[in-house]
Radical SAM core domain-containing protein (Vibrio marisflavi CECT 7928), 307 residues
Amino acid sequence: MQLHELVNTFGQDLRRRYGERVHKLTLHGGFSCPNRDGTIGRGGCTFCNVASFTDEKVQVQSIQEQLQDRAKEIKRASKYLAYFQAYTSTYAEVQLLKNMYEQALSGADIVGLCVGTRPDCVSDDVFALLAGYVNQGYEVWLELGLQSANNDTLKRINRGHDFEVYADIAAKARSLGIKVCTHLILGLPKEGRSDNLATLDAVLEAGTDGIKLHGLHIVEGSTLARAWKAGKIDLLSLEEYVSIASEMIQKTPAHIVYHRVSSSARRPTLLAPLWCENRWLPMTEIGRQLDKSGSQGILIGDSFIPD
Ligand code: SF4
């Protein structure tokens, strides 16, 4: 069986709701991050080197130029979500955010926005702006980096916020009709399967609409890269990642949408583990594992049933 027959994937969820394929267009707003510029912290989260997941040259392009550059992707579907992914995409004056988001929403066939940010960077003005788009009929997702619900881990990885801030912001967003997608990392230093499962429980208890899973990977330029080069970091094998991610999916209610079950990065920025280089490998293996042992929700009696 394919992954979307075992997991409530975002692609299938969109197709079900819109009756056709909806493609996510990644845009770069040229934002900074308060955990890098000294406002909240310096040096950023220990795993982060944003150059590993975005093309830096688009920072100088306008939103329209970026939309034009995505022309090839645009041909792959007839409806799109504009996705502000890099750094902290709510970290600017609200008027600037408004201009940027509305340039994106004015693009052809854009049905909504996905905005990636930190839980401590969503002001009341930003909430009002995003809720306004919801009220106009747009789909709006707030993608919140949490990574772990364990406050000791959050300190260790220099997140600069705790779980309680995340829980408050997630609840507020959902009360305004803004959907929440929670980003989690498996394999963080000093965390194991039980920590990842405890994080899932806490996130479900706080309430979320979507989850993105990533395995910890070491990228050049990050704080963790130095520790890894000194032999101080153990990383999950592909088998371990697949096993933990599969169990988390099986403990997730069927209505929650998995935006991603693994992430990838490219060498030379990616240092380890090298299985992260292959975008499809972990997805295929998670699909195999779930095919054998049961689909999303099965361990809580809420098995996902595909259309
Ligand atoms: S992971 Fe996000 S919040 Fe952390 S330093 Fe990088 S851009 Fe900033």
Notes: The chain has eleven helices and nine strands. The chain has one domain: 3-300. The domain at 3-300 is CATH 3.20.20.70 (TIM Barrel). The longest helix spans residues 193-206.
